[in-house]
Amino acid sequence: MTLRIASIGTTPLSGDAARSLSDLPTAVLTAAARQVRDAAFGSRVTFSPKVFLPLTKLCADRCGYCTFATAPRHLPHAYLTAAEVDSVAAAGATHGCAEALFTLGEGPERRYPQARVWLDEHGFTSTVDYLVASAGRVLTETGLLPHANAGAISAEELARLRTVAPSQGMMIESLRPDLAAHRGAPDKTPERRLATLRAAGGLAIPFTTGILVGIGETEADRV
Question: What is the DSSP letter of 12?
Answer without folding.
Answer: P
